[in-house]
Write a structure and sequence with these properties.
The protein is mainly alpha-helical. The protein has helices at residues 2-18, 26-37, 45-48, 62-68, and strands at residues 23-25, 52-54.
Length: 74
Amino acid sequence: MGFALLCFFLWVLPLWSQDQGQALPLKEILIAIEQQHNVTFNYIEQEIIVFNIPAPNPSTTIEQKSITFKPKPS
């Protein structure tokens, strides 16, 4: 029983962690973070307009949100 439960969690948890919600334009997310945390981001709009990412949880800290923006290998 314990092994079956372990296998279940090892199968379900990765599926659950991949559900990150609806992807939004990066520019909108940056504007929301700027307003919430009183910070400013410098970017070239034409370069970021092509990116859509899952919105970070509004209750997380700015440090936790910065992890969201680390590039992932393609």
